[in-house]
Every structure is written in C-alpha cells, then in structure tokens.
C-alpha cells in the first residue's frame, strides 16, 4: 500500500498476527515464528497457502480501503497518547527504513515473492509444494545475505494449520494444553500492547518523588545522584 494513511505500525509477532487474522474471520490457521532456517523445520509445519481470483491491483485497492481490515489491524498498535502524524512522511522523505512484510508462497508450480513495495509478484522459478521447503530456504538466505552482518531487525514467521485442531484430531491432550496455554499468553500480551501505561508511570514517579521529599531536604537529589553513579559503573563494566 503506497498510501499508509490511517494504518498503524504493529509488532511482528506470532501472537499479534494470529489474533489479527482471527479477528478478520480466518479460521483454523495460525502464525508460528521460525527460529531455525532449515528445510526440515519448514516441512514439519505443513504450511498452507491461499489464492484468490482478484487481480493484483484490485486486491491491493480492496485491502487498503477496507475499514474492517484497517480497524482489526490498528487494534494491535501500541497505545500511546503521543502521536506524530508527520513521522511516517518524514521517514519516507529522508529515505529511512521502511518496515513491512514479505510473503513467499508456491502458486501453480512457481515460487512467488509477494512484496507490497513492489509493483507485482516476483517469480523465483519453478516450485512444487514438496520442493517448497528447500527452495524457499535458498531464497531467504540470499535475501538475508544482502543485509550487513549483525543485522537483527527482521524475523521469520510461517502460516500453519491451527495446532490445537491437529492436537484434537490425534487426541494429544498434552499438546492441546500447551497450545491453549500459548494462546492465553498471547491474549495477555496483546492486552498489554493495547494499554497506555503513561498515566500509570506518571503516578508511580509522583509517588517515588513524594516519598523522597518526605524523607527530608536533599533526599531526592541524593537518591538521583546515587542512581547516576550506579548507571555509570554499569556502563564502564560493559
């Protein structure tokens, strides 16, 4: 989407994206973060892909203008009372990094890269469903190699079948409980993401400062001085 107006930046997190697609009505799938870049790991996830009959330009227009999708998306943005409406525009004008998501999927025997910043899907050659794990690993490694050594501002996620459904089908109570526990953790983390803690932090600071003032003259300044000294010691130990 070239025009980002009205769309908030959300965290690249498996819990966020799983909850997002569920809010959009997508059933029986979830996102899983990949911590190992090898074909066996990808193959074990039983990845799915979905197709649509929309032409690319119409699909992009429909997505960017969809109020329900935008509302569901923005629900996972971090809450903050301080919003700089010019930040995104200034970043683009100054050539700053553009954080976005790129998808790889096999369609009709071809591996495609779907990048919203590109005018069309990018073909990476022939690829069957069985070949996808090996093929996509090579493409991902080639892309990662373009970044400077030590670059960590990206992560990998896979769209997979809802692991709770699979656990129920085979009667694996332990796996089901593990997945339910993970979902509860995601729900808690997403609640925290939506919360604005500025007021809470302000009250805590007022309480701390008030407590030091009651200790007598100079107590607050002494406390701040000790904190600065401790910070300097920690910095020197690095």
UniProtKB/TrEMBL annotation:
<feature type="domain" description="UCH catalytic">
    <location>
        <begin position="1"/>
        <end position="161"/>
    </location>
</feature>
<dbReference type="InterPro" id="IPR036959">
    <property type="entry name" value="Peptidase_C12_UCH_sf"/>
</dbReference>
<dbReference type="GO" id="GO:0016579">
    <property type="term" value="P:protein deubiquitination"/>
</dbReference>
<dbReference type="Pfam" id="PF01088">
    <property type="entry name" value="Peptidase_C12"/>
</dbReference>
<dbReference type="GO" id="GO:0005737">
    <property type="term" value="C:cytoplasm"/>
</dbReference>
<dbReference type="Pfam" id="PF18031">
    <property type="entry name" value="UCH_C"/>
</dbReference>
<dbReference type="InterPro" id="IPR038765">
    <property type="entry name" value="Papain-like_cys_pep_sf"/>
</dbReference>
<keyword id="KW-0378">Hydrolase</keyword>
<dbReference type="GO" id="GO:0006511">
    <property type="term" value="P:ubiquitin-dependent protein catabolic process"/>
</dbReference>
<dbReference type="InterPro" id="IPR001578">
    <property type="entry name" value="Peptidase_C12_UCH"/>
</dbReference>
<keyword id="KW-0788">Thiol protease</keyword>
<keyword id="KW-0833">Ubl conjugation pathway</keyword>
<dbReference type="InterPro" id="IPR041507">
    <property type="entry name" value="UCH_C"/>
</dbReference>
<protein>
    <recommendedName>
        <fullName>ubiquitinyl hydrolase 1</fullName>
        <ecNumber>3.4.19.12</ecNumber>
    </recommendedName>
</protein>
<keyword id="KW-0645">Protease</keyword>
<dbReference type="GO" id="GO:0004843">
    <property type="term" value="F:cysteine-type deubiquitinase activity"/>
</dbReference>
<comment type="similarity">
    <text>Belongs to the peptidase C12 family.</text>
</comment>
């Amino acid at each position: 989407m070239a025009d980002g107006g009205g769309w908030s930046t959300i965290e690249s997190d498996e819990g966020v994206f799983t909850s997002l697609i569920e809010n959009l009505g997508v059933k029986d799938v979830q996102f899983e973060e990949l911590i190992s870049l090898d074909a066996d790991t990808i193959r074990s996830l039983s990845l799915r892909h979905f197709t649509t009959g929309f032409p690319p330009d119409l699909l992009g227009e429909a997505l960017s203008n969809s109020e329900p999708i935008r509302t569901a998306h923005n629900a996972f943005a971090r809450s903050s009372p301080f919003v700089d409406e010019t930040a995104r525009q200034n970043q683009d004008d100054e050539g700053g990094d553009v954080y976005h998501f790129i998808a790889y999927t096999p369609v009709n025997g071809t591996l495609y890269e779907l990048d919203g910043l590109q005018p069309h899907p990018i073909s990476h050659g022939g690829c069957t469903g069985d070949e996808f794990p090996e093929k996509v690993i090579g493409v991902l490694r080639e892309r990662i190699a373009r970044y400077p050594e030590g670059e960590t501002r990206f992560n990998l996620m896979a769209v997979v079948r809802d692991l709770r459904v699979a656990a129920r089908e085979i009667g694996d109570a332990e796996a089901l409980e593990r997945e339910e526990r993970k979902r509860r953790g995601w729900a808690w983390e997403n609640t925290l993401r939506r919360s604005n803690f500025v007021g809470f932090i302000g009250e805590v600071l007022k309480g701390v400062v008030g407590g030091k003032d009651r200790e007598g003259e100079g107590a607050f300044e002494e406390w701040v001085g000790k904190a600065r000294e401790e910070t300097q010691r920690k910095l020197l130990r690095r």
